[in-house]
Amino acid sequence: MSTTVTICSSANRILAGLLRGDTSFRPNVLYVEFQQGTSPVSPLPEVDPADSDYYLDLRADTLSDRDFLRIPVASITPLSGADPNKITLAFSGICVGTEGVGCKPTSGARIYGLALAASPTFGTGVDDLTRDIVWARGYYESESQILFSTTAQTVLTFRLNLQN
What pTM did the predictor assign? Predict the structure, then answer.
């Protein structure tokens, strides 16, 4: 991400679930926000850490040219340097699907943001987006936004910096 990542208020629910050993709180999905068209996305959304309905509202907005994919986290890689108190977790995913959850096509679209979420129902028979808990959101500056690949799958990484 080339902008500040905002930790959402709901992140405490994820941490509490993980600390009590509940694996359904494991961050396992990335939300890939995109806008149809190849022009840089501006303005970027304002991030309210307490807004738990942002993605539900985005999905329901049929008048906008914005949408998002909900993709599985394919790998989690811890990265650390000389300071043991500074760790970065890299959550990577591969964009799959030709349309977002709001049914807008990804073809010819520009990726402008990512979010990391825990979904207790992702990949199950009753996959329920309304039960997802968003940990953090971040947005790319115009010069760093990504076009969906037309020849291969698009791979994205959400980096979450953890430190004392």
Answer: 0.93
